[in-house]
Design brief:
Blueprint: E1 5-6, E2 24-25, H1 38-67, H2 70-78, H3 83-86, H4 93-107, H5 109-119, H6 121-138, H7 145-159, H8 162-171, H9 176-204, H10 214-221, H11 226-238, H12 251-264, H13 286-293, H14 296-308, H15 310-324, H16 330-336, H17 338-358, H18 362-381, H19 385-399, H20 402-412, H21 417-427, H22 432-440, H23 450-485, H24 490-498
Antiparallel strand pairs: 1-2
Length: 515
């Protein structure tokens, strides 16, 4: 989409934390970045390839390494052993501990993410990894319920903000319809972690030690020790803080990377109260907060995302126990939990790739949830353990996709970085699903876990209907805006595009929502 630039360089007075931008467009503001020349397309391929080979693996590995430890998945693996007896735990202490981790993990996410944006994502991630690595190793010394609860609460606090900080960070590097697939690759590490966790647990449980229990070896050896202490150094040294300091990009690539994100998040087109073009910084304004907290469609999206991600929170921790309830031994149940997670990762990658390709979010989200629902229905209604185990794969093939698709959807519809960072932080409350899962999948419902599966099915159905409703609302709003601006002349469009009437970002009538 071509537009004629209008030169504007206003440096007559200081604007504090505000940077000036040149070459504002006068009309036809694009709603997302797309290369306009073969040269730009070639630069995109080069930049994306370097990001995919350097930035994304760094973050994804550390996400997988976080999840592959006792914090998210291995407590479920450990529960298939004599962990509860050795640590003098009561029947529901483990499920309650899962919920308690989610309490601090969820409530401290906004604060943690604010700190991360202020001090820099690379620095904050490095600190969090050292903290949670130390706390994970401390799990080997659990001897009673009080120690378990204290460590889980501290671990949740240490990990809070990691995922939303990374999601926001990636949204500042990849344009709108390059982002969803990368978010999926990153989030897919949850599924890969589940697979590795089962494999590692199975291998560790073959080790017989006179000094340590099998679950203590699992905690100490499963990555969440020395690797978590060492990995922050790599993040600190290799992860770039921003585009213009990225060591792996050429100067031309740095300039193009900045320009394409300026277009994609509409930073170019924001003006201050005096009409001066501005760029956003790490500062959050009161208007950013007001805009984020009054956008009912996005807030409802977060609420329904809690329901969409419930199977992930449940199976991410309790799948080994569910599989054990199908008749497999404790050690073998850990091995049998590997393949469903592998299928889940494959399903996730297919859904997010298709979503980016077709520039569509909501139907892909609902379809993935429907696939998970089908798996749950068979797991709930069937008494055949082999059939139930087979449809565990079907369930996870759809369950993992909703989370990254929703983050991509929210980012797509929040072009300004201030409100975007807040919305992604608020979306962190979708981890309340972990609290729900911990209270649903209690020991008294073993071995079939029929009641938790039934409630999970109902909640997923409600979430699907909710997303369909939000899609309808966005379609109606786009239709209303198209009808409103159809008769506008060039001057009216110019005023709207520049925000001179007080509307900005997705509030502008010329902005069309993704659905």
């Amino acid at each position: 989409m071509k537009y004629a630039p209008e030169s504007r360089t206003s440096v007559d007075k200081p604007l504090g934390h505000v940077d000036l931008v040149e070459n504002l467009p006068s009309q036809n503001v694009p709603h997302f970045y797309a290369p306009r020349t073969p040269q730009e397309a070639a630069l995109d391929r080069s930049i994306n390839m370097k990001l995919d080979l350097i930035v994304l693996p760094l973050l994804a590995f550390n996400f997988m390494e976080q999840l592959c430890g006792i914090d998210k998945t291995n407590i479920g693996n450990a529960a298939t052993t004599k962990f509860a007896r050795d640590a003098h735990l009561q029947i529901n202490d483990i499920s309650n501990a899962v919920s308690l981790l989610s309490v601090t993990f969820v409530t401290l996410q906004p604060l943690s993410t604010i700190i991360g944006r202020r001090v820099g994502v690379k620095y904050w991630i490095s600190f969090m990894m050292i903290a949670w690595g130390s706390l994970c190793m401390a799990h080997a010394g659990i001897k009673n319920r009080q120690t378990l609860i204290a460590l889980r609460l501290l671990l949740g606090a240490a990990e809070a903000g990691f995922v939303p900080s990374v999601f926001f960070y990636l949204s500042t590097w990849y344009p709108k319809y390059h982002l969803g697939f990368r978010l999926g690759l990153f989030a897919g590490m949850y599924s890969i972690a589940g697979a590795f966790s089962g494999l590692i647990a199975y291998g560790v449980f073959q080790i017989h030690s006179s000094k340590y229990k099998s679950w203590q070896l699992l905690v100490s050896l499963c990555a969440e020790g020395g690797i978590t202490i060492f990995a922050p150094l790599i993040i600190f040294l290799a992860l770039p803080l921003k585009q213009n300091t990225a060591w792996f990009l050429t100067q031309t690539e740095r300039e193009h990377s900045l320009r394409r994100m300026d277009i994609d998040v509409m930073k170019n087109f924001e003006v201050d109260e005096d009409g001066n073009a501005i760029k956003e910084t790490r500062m959050i304004s009161m208007r950013d907060i007001r805009d984020a907290l009054t956008d009912w469609k996005k807030l409802l999206t977060v609420v329904f995302n809690i329901l969409a991600t419930l199977p992930v929170s449940a199976f991410g921790t309790f799948l080994p126990l569910i599989v054990k309830g199908m008749g497999y031994s404790g050690v073998k149940a850990n091995l049998m939990s590997v393949s469903p997670f592998v299928v889940g990762a494959f399903g996730l990658f297919v859904f997010v790739y298709s979503s980016d390709h077709f520039h569509e979010r909501s139907l892909h989200t609902v379809t993935s949830m429907a696939l998970a629902l089908i798996g749950l229905i068979v797991m709930y209604t069937s008494s055949d353990p082999h059939l139930r185990y087979g449809f565990t794969h079907v369930c996870l093939a759809g369950a993992f996709s909703a989370g990254p698709l929703i983050v991509g959807w929210l980012a797509n519809n929040t072009p300004l970085l201030g409100p975007r960072s807040l919305i992604i932080r608020i979306n962190g409350y979708s981890n309340i699903a972990g609290v729900i899962a911990g209270q649903l999948f209690k020991a008294q419902y073993a071995p079939s876990y029929g009641y938790p599966l039934k409630i999970t099915m109902i909640l997923i159905g409600v979430g699907m209907l909710g997303f369909v409703g939000i899609r309808t609302a966005y379609m109606y709003e786009n239709h209303r805006r198209s009808k409103q601006i159809a008769s506008w002349d060039e001057e009216q469009r110019r005023v709207e595009d520049r925000g001179e009437n007080g509307r900005r970002g997705d509030q502008r009538w010329t902005f069309m929502f993704t659905y």
